Amino acid sequence: MKAYSEAQLFSVEDAAKVLGGISPWTIRKHIQYGNLKVTRIGRRVFLDSEELERIRMDGLPSLGHPRKPESVPVPPAVGSGVLATSG
Prior knowledge:
The protein is of the alpha+beta class. Helices cover 30% and strands 13% of the residues. A three-stranded antiparallel sheet has the order 1-3-2. The chain is elongated and about 80 Å long.
């Protein structure tokens, strides 16, 4: 017979409160990026007490994204041989 350990499950909102009042949206974003281990029951998402303890000990990784350079048209250099013609 297998012995199952009982881990308490927390909703995203409850987990945010337990972790010191961080935003539930921050937790959802970490779940989306795969940074957090979750338990899904139907469409509901839960974090167990072991995962919350891991977050307390290790913290959450940065969600910073490298910014894509904006495409800005570069004018032709002076003396590049490109002349504007008037029509």
